[in-house]
Specification:
Elements lengths: L1 H27 L7 E3 L1 E4 L9 E8 L24 H18 L3 E10 L8 H8 L4 E13 L8 E11 L5 E6 L16 E10 L2 E9 L8 H17 L5 E8 L2 E2 L14 E2 L10 E3 L7 E2 L12 E2 L2 E5 L3 E8 L12 E7 L2
Parallel strand pairs: 3-4, 9-10, 11-12
Antiparallel strand pairs: 1-7, 2-5, 3-18, 4-6, 5-6, 7-8, 8-9, 10-16, 13-16, 14-15, 17-18
């Protein structure tokens, strides 16, 4: 009996030691980017901007692993990884096909993996930028997790992912801004380090176009972190916007309800409401309320069963004219989001 007791104690001590060691390793190797840093400019054309009417498309591609047959454990499902490398490749091929077909001047892409077990180590940044080598491409990480140990029986594993912008024009600079707000311990070490990526374009005559890709928090309890992040956007608008000389577009996955007419009291926790203070800036939302841009991941997608709403779209400065906004209904076939395309004009 004493021998069994000693073995049990040793086993417990070993497990405790391994757990403490793992937590220590995660803390020491945690991705901790600066508040402001340069993004990676993968490719930069020498084409200057001409004309005054353009299009931009935003698309959260779900790391090539959240196609219609997938659910996700944080939303109440059971899955944590892509179903296969082949399926991830198929999903990314369809994303590329869509980008090629819609032929926008600018693209904001979210959840684009460089590598990771969750996406079968398919390098989506390389795949997309290699295919669109005739586009300017900028990239910044917002997720570097060496290992996420949940769910226990099928852990998500590693994830290296970020924001990817494409455009047909020469970019003057690309900057990553760290968004405020940290999840509580230990979740902060396994969650995205939320950010925005700002690409700056010279329009000539002292005028500038700011194209800003965003992906706000989703699972912060009570939406408190998201409120801090929206305040950052307000402060940033006040810093960069000049009615005479700067044009500004934010676009991406807001994880906030963009069409308040769709509001219901039983919104899932990952959908928040944008504060009125954001619109005191004079900026306005541009979205397509006729096409839902996100579906819930509590179950694989079945039309009419999953929760759907509009959280993807744009925020534009008052000196920009919105010509058209079109939600592209892809039926959530290869991602849990649908892309949105904005046509806009600037200047006279």
């Amino acid at each position: 009996m004493k021998k069994i007791f000693k073995i049990s104690i040793r086993l417990v001590l070993v497990l405790v030691f391994l757990f403490v060691g793992f937590v220590g390793y995660i803390i020491v190797t945690d991705f901790d980017p600066a508040l402001v840093e340069n993004s990676e400019i993968i490719n930069n054309l020498d084409t200057t901007i001409t004309g005054n009417t353009f299009s931009v498309t935003t698309f959260n591609i779900g790391y090539g692993g959240l196609d219609k047959d997938q659910d996700f454990f944080l939303d109440g499902g059971t899955m944590s990884r892509t179903s296969s490398e082949e399926q991830t490749e198929e999903n990314i091929e369809q994303v590329i096909s869509f980008i090629e077909t819609v032929d926008s001047d600018f693209y904001f892409l979210q959840e684009v993996d460089v590598k990771g077990t969750r996406s079968a180590n398919v390098n989506q940044v390389k795949g997309i930028t290699d295919y669109f080598s005739d586009y300017t491409a900028t990239f910044s990480y917002n997720f570097k997790a060496k290992w996420i140990p949940i769910p226990v029986m099928n852990p998500l594993g590693s994830a290296y992912s970020g924001l990817l912008n494409l455009s047909k024009y020469q970019v003057e600079s690309s900057t990553r801004y760290r968004l405020p707000g940290d999840e509580p311990f230990p979740r902060k070490y396994f969650d995205l380090d939320r950010s925005v990526m700002e690409d700056v374009y010279d329009l000539g005559d002292g005028k500038t176009l700011y194209m800003i890709n965003i992906h706000l928090s989703a699972y912060d309890q009570g939406g408190l972190i998201r409120a801090e992040q929206v305040q950052f956007l307000i402060d940033h608008i006040n810093e960069i916007y000049d009615e005479e000389n700067t044009y500004v577009i934010f676009g991406g996955d807001w994880n906030h309800l963009l069409d308040n007419s769709l509001y219901t009291e039983d919104l899932p926790e990952w959908v928040a409401i944008l504060p009125d203070e954001l619109f005191d800036t004079g900026f306005s939302l541009a979205f397509d309320g006729e096409v839902n841009t996100v579906r819930s991941d509590d179950t694989p997608y079945v039309e009419g069963i999953n929760f759907e709403t509009v959280i993807d779209g744009f925020l534009v400065s008052p000196n920009i004219t919105v010509v058209d906004v079109t939600g592209n209904d892809l039926g959530f076939e290869n991602s849990d989001h649908n892309p949105v395309t904005l046509t806009f004009s600037i200047g006279d």
